Amino acid sequence: MKSYENVFISSLTTMRIGGTARHVLEIESENDIPEAYNFASAYWYPTYIIGGGANTIGRDEGLDGVILLNRLRGFNDNNGTFTIMAGENWDTIVEYACEKGYTGIEALSRIPGLVGAAPVQNIGAYGQDISGVFKSARAYDTATHSFITLEKKDMQFAYRKSIMNTMMKGRFFIISVTLELKKGQMTRPFYNSVEKYIEDYGATDFSPKGMRGIVSALRADKLPDPREKASSGSFFKNVYLDPIESEKAEEKGYPVHRGRDGNKINSAWFIEQCGFKGQLLYGMRVNPKAPLVLINESAGTYANLARARAMITSTIYDKFGYWLEQEPVEIINTKNRGAQR
Ligand SMILES: Cc1cc2nc3c(=O)[nH]c(=O)nc-3n(C[C@H](O)[C@H](O)[C@H](O)COP(=O)(O)OP(=O)(O)OC[C@H]3O[C@@H](n4cnc5c(N)ncnc54)[C@H](O)[C@@H]3O)c2cc1C
Predict the structure, then answer these.
(1) Which of 179, 193, 218, 288 is most enclosed, with most CB atoms within 10 A?
(2) DSSP per-residue codes, 89-157
(3) What CATH number corresponds to the domain at position 144?
(4) Does the CB atom of residue 62 touch ligand 1 within 6 A?
């Protein structure tokens, strides 16, 4: 296990914000995991796992604790049952699946990050999410100090949610993920923007490979490449509504989308209505093509990001009565607050 000291969190995350982490440990084998947690608990250090850092925000105070960098590699395909080590690149697996003609994750093409983080927030895009093909995950349980298997039913998947980012946040280190994929292709009607693309460009290939091509083109057009522009992708979640809330919202003239995954208002709509689209707020650019995405153009610090976020969320709350929820997870320094994690 390699270890480093005083590493900038900004260098480990795609938003490129955050002060130093006291310790960074690279997890390269299963045995490294208990060793890393034992080290952290011996010093009462809080811990945080980072894969690709594409859904993680560091704060200016950094972390007086331990970052576990997931670098577990390996992949096995048993006739569509994929067992993937958590440190594999997510999109490399999607590309492989599409090449082989497996359906189930083609719409999740080009999502940055590593496999271990994918079930944490139940990554989703263009009508698919990982819960649709998730079978199980092997994990290290920091509460019982044992290696366990989490089945799909244990994960309690919902929109951008699982037990891993809600009630069991920080408890498990995912070692590998098993997905069950089948040969085939997605069926129409597709997600609105996919249908529009098909209409505009006359696309006819809806095989996994064809769909990967469509999704890649859509994403390249509106989402920043994290290698070129610092962001965490969508900074805010969409607003999901129950049937009564949906009716009330429609009465007020808000655009409620009734889809297979529930009723929602696209939070980008609120941002546009408040005139933030394309604006530079405290160095954070509200992406003109996909306003849910905030780009760290010159913000530099978490304090500036927090100012931009407060301006957007409070304006939307005052005007529409909805409080937008943040999607990326923050590294919170609990060392001086008397909590272990
Ligand atoms: C340009 C851009 C576009 C994006 N588009 C999408 C999109 O379309 N849909 C979508 O859902 N997301 C999207 N995202 C968000 C992000 O890509 C996903 O959340 C992805 O799964 C993050 O992977 P990561 O390895 O970088 O996660 P990290 O930021 O490293 O980790 C994310 C969370 O998972 C935890 N975690 C990581 N690895 C493990 C592990 N092995 N065990 C336990 N917990 C772990 C971390 O502690 C953290 O809380 C986008 C991000 C960017 C920058």
Answers:
(1) 179
(2) BHHHHHHHHHHTTEESSGGGTT--SBGGGTTTTT-EETTEEGGGTEEEEEEEETTTTEEEEEEHHHH--
(3) 3.30.465.10
(4) no
Question: Average pLDDT of the chain?
Answer: 95
Mutation choice for ligand 1 from 59, 70, 111, CB with most ligand atoms inside 8 A: 111
- CATH number for the domain spanning 244: value is 3.90.78.10
- Which ligand 1 atom sits nearest the alpha carbon of residue 86? 41
Please report whether residue 255 resides in a domain. yes
- The per-residue pLDDT for 261 is 75
Enzyme catalytic residues: 160, 234, 327
Residue 23 lies inside a defined structural domain of this protein: yes
What is the pLDDT at residue 336?
Answer: 57
Best CA proximity match to 172, nearest among 296, 293, 34: 34
CA distances (Å), origin 328, targets 106, 154, 181: 23, 22, 28
Measured in Å, residue 44 CA sits from the centre of ligand 1 at 26
Which of 183, 215, 246 marks a domain boundary? Answer: 183
- CATH code of the domain in which 21 resides: 3.30.43.10
- Enclosing domain of residue 8: 2-70
Q: How far is CA 66 from the centre of its chain?
A: 21
* pLDDT over 80 (residue 335): no
Q: Is the CB of 52 under 6 A from ligand 1?
A: yes
Show which of 29, 50, 70 is a domain's final residue: 70
